[in-house]
Amino acid sequence: MALTRVSEILKMADEAHTSAIAFICIDYNTAYSVARAAEETNTPAIIMLLWEHNAKMNTMNMKGFAAMARELAQGVKVPIGVHLDHGYDYAEVFRAMNAGFNSVMIDGSAHPLEENIAITKKVTETAHLLGVDVEAELGHVGMAVDHDGDKSDFYTDPAIAERFCRETDCDYLTISIGNAHGVYVETPHLDIARLEEINAATDTPLVLHGGSGIPDEQLEVAFRKGINKFNLGTDFLAAYYQAILDYNASVAGDDNPYKMLDLPMYTQEKLVAFLKTRLALCHF
Ligand SMILES: [Zn+2]
Question: Which of its termini does the chain have fewer beta carbons within 10 Å around, N or C?
Answer without folding.
Answer: N
